[in-house]
User: What shape does this take?
Amino acid sequence: MEKFRSWIPHGFDYLSPEEIKILRRLQAQSRECFEKEGFNEIIPPGIDYAGAFAITGRNAVPDRIFEFRDSAGEILAVRSDLTVQVIKAVASGRAGTTIPADLYYVQPVFVEAGKGSGASREIYQAGIEMIGSPNQISYIERVQRLVTLARTVLGTLAEGARFLYGDARFLEILFNGIDPMLRRELSEAFYKKDRRKIQELCSKGDVSSDRALILSEMPHIFGGPECLDELETLCASEPGLLLLLKEARQIPGVVFDFSLVRELSYYDGPVIEAFLPGHTDRILSGGFYDGLAREFSGKSLPAAGFAVHLSELVRARQAA
Assistant: This one.
C-alpha cells in the first residue's frame, strides 16, 4: 500500500489554522520575553552528528534519535536536543558570542517514539541557555535566577503553572560506590517510585541499610517546605544530602520531589519541571548541566536552562 499518498508517519501531524495561530502567538511571546530579559537568539542546525546527542546519556539509546548516513558515510541525526547543540556551539567557539552568554532558541526537536505510544515525534520548543557565571554569583543565586526566569516566562505563556524541584546530586551521592551495572535499573526504579524494585535491587547490590532506606523512601516524600523536615530526618546519616536540603529551602513556591531525575542524563544539579492543573504532560523542563561542556571541549562550564514545550501548550489551549 502506498501510504505516502494519503498518510503521514505516526507521531507527526499537520497543524490546523487555529493551531498555527496559537503556536505563532506563543513563539512571538517567548521571543519577546527572552529578549526583554537580555537573551540573544541562536539557531542550531537541524542536522548534527549522531554522536553529539548520544554521548550525553539522554539519547544513548539508538532508537531515541533519527539516525542516518550521508553520502560520505558520516553518521548523522536529526536534531533531538537543543541544549546539547547550544552547549556544543559555545564550548567550541562556534556560537559567535563571548562567555558568559545568555542565549535562547525557538525551534522544533525530533525524538523517536514507538508506534502506538501516542507520543509526538515533532515537538516545538522555546528555551534558554545561561552559559558561564556572570559576576561570580553564587551557585544558589544561579538556581534562583533559573527558577525566577522560568516563572516569568510561564507567567506570560501559561498562568497557573505549578513547579516541581529536584536535584540530580542526590543520586550522585546515593549511588556512590554502587556497581555501575546496577545503577541504570536502580535509577529507573527511583524515578518511577517503585519501592519494591528499589529494595530488591539494593539487596542484590549489597547496598548499606541506611542508604537502601533513603533510596526506597525518598521518592515517596514530596510536597512543600514541610516535606524537607521529614527528608532531613531520613537523610540524617548522609551529611552531603543534608547540605542539599538546606540549599533547597532557599527556593520558594515549588513542590519538592527529588526523584525527578534519571541518573543517565546530562543534568548534574537542580532540576525543574512545570505542569498545568488538569494536565499530566509537563510544559517546561530544565536544570543545571555544568559538566555537559566537558563532552565537547574537555572543560566544565557553568550552564543551566530550560525548555518550554510549546506543542503541549498548544494542546492545552485548545482543550481549554
Remarks:
- The first strand starts at residue 40 and ends at 41.
- The CA atoms of residues 10 and 242 lie 46 Å apart.
- Residues 17-36 form the longest helix (20 residues).
